[in-house]
Specification:
elongated, mainly alpha
């Protein structure tokens, strides 16, 4: 994935990730209930998503399908954040999170387990 998603586009894709392939009408029902969007707004955002190649539609029934995975979007957005805000240095992002106390003890333990699972020898890095 190499396309920046606007918040509105992300909301549409999140619905598709959660619900699976559904009609544009069903998406409009979700956005009305969850966000308060009109049907017109939803269809406009769906059209933009189709133009960007983020989702595809098929007939009959205007069924929408996400063309990007949540993992792809998370990776792209994380890399964008690191490049834009942290001068391309992922360690600065982690240091920021650790320094601001934004990680609970359980989150820190989970992070430690992830690092170990990835086979990173933290002691070797010291």
């Amino acid at each position: 994935m190499n396309t920046k998603l606007f918040d509105s586009e992300l909301k549409i894709v999140e619905i598709l990730w959660r619900e699976g392939d559904i009609t544009a009408k069903q998406i409009a029902e979700f956005t009305k209930r969850e966000i308060g969007w009109s049907k017109t707004t939803t269809y406009t955002v769906i059209k933009k998503c189709i133009e960007k190649g983020i989702i595809a539609k098929r007939e009959p029934g205007y069924i929408c399908h996400a063309l990007v995975s949540k993992a792809e979007v998370q990776c792209f957005e994380t890399n964008e954040l690191i490049e834009r805000i942290f001068d391309g240095k992922a360690d600065l992002l982690v240091a920021h999170l650790l320094g601001k106390g934004r990680l609970s003890k359980s989150s820190l333990e989970h992070l430690k387990n992830l690092v170990e699972h990835l086979g990173v020898d933290v002691q070797r890095l010291k």
